[in-house]
Amino acid sequence: MTPYEKLMARVQETQLLAGASSILAWDQEVKMPKGGLPYRGKQLALLAQLAHERSVATEYQDLLAECEQDPALTGDPASPQASNLRELRRSLDRLTKLPGSLVAEEAALASEGQAVWAEARKADDFSKFAPVLERVVSLLRRKAECFGWAEGGEIWDALADDYEPGCTAREVENIFTPLRERLSGLIREIAEAPRRPSDRFQRIKLPVDKQRSFVEELVGAIGFDFKRGRLDVSTHPFCSGNHPGDVRLTTRFHEDNLSDAIGSTMHEAGHGLYEQGLPFEHQGTPRGSAVSLGIHESQSRMWENQVGRSASFWRWCLPRLKEHFGGEVAALSFDDVYGGVNRVEPSLIRVEADEATYNLHIMIRFELERRMLSGDLAVRDLPAAWKAEYKDALGLDVPDDARGCLQDIHWSMTAMGYFPTYTLGNLYCAQFYEKADEDLGGLDAAFERGEFDGLLTWLREHVHEPGSSRPAAELCVHVTGKPLSADPLMRHLEGKLRPLYGI
Ligand code: ZN
Questions:
Q1: In angstroms, what is the span from residue 241 Cα to ligand 1's centroid?
Q2: With a cut of 70, which residues of the chain have pLDDT below it?
Q3: 35, 228, 249, 322: which sits with the fewest CB atoms below 10 Å from its CB?
Q4: What pTM was computed for the model?
């Protein structure tokens, strides 16, 4: 075996441990009885420790360094060899720059933080959570110092690298600033619009088992392969990919909200299609893995929004919906359904937000976490800053902290630098979709016939198969010919919402 072959064998073996962890974590959310919890915690902790030991072992580090010296491996930066070495080096640097004591401190704080946050949110009492959040901010500052950041950059950049490698606050700001202005303008116009779509579709009660069989058929129709995946139910929907042959989706159902089940399931199926489309031959190596959270999210939003909220999709889907449910559903018009899933309404809760206002929720969190990390905003002033931002961006009065700065779990589990990946996902998604639509000569006619394989094949070739061959920002330029911009997303939203609201 060559040193590179030895290195890959080792990396793929370590990945087996991660795959086993992911199945155990899925089982914990979906199947496991409560009594399994303490022992499951031990199983997961041991697997994580074994994977960590393998990932920092001297033998592994020497092997990686040896391969990096070989110009035949590193010459072409987009080759599988070069991208594997680049990504492995990045991960190793992240692992070795942090002292073990800080890793342990973060794990303990994340678990304490989540428990304290859950109580504080339930009691609507920010003062309960503030001391933990202060410790989170101070720990993350120390963590960022260990990693360092590029000249001209800032502390936020060092943390974002775990979620969106190479992404900087400055770049995010450059895209978010014009996006915020244009979105706010559109949302203001919608608020004063002469027409509003009806919400009849969202008010119909439907049995959960019937909803379940419907969404199962739906994700099969868009191309999710059930021979290589499953769909189950959990409190919070998620997708866990352990390898392209075994991708687990979960979703949720509410009797009175079929459109939520459709949206959530299409969303997770989008993540799942990405996982199923990663190249088998590179499985267990970075080249065969997803490139970033932003790109992952671009795939979920593709099927949830670009496809699942389009007029052409509903022209195909509505007759099926009527046939499946009958009753009140059979009386729905096209406008009830298409308009219903595209209603825009500023609201307090991020996870319930519509496609247009959603991004403003993200921008607020990005600004606030950035200011907390830089020391510009004291933790105790967060609730007031939150309220001011919601008033300014969405025109809303936030009545309490439970529906304000206590609503999201992320900061309590020490995840700062994460939120923007959601909006980056929307932006990447719109830019990829425009290109696919152009390359394929228009997708609407195919969607109306229930044909989604054209889009899926395009995504397989341009986004799924490449895995981590290029960093996200480069992938975007490579695929669309342009750097990421706010324009495609705004064209998408304005093009759909203006006619719908008669503006
Ligand atoms: Zn997602």
A1: 13
A2: none
A3: 35
A4: 0.95
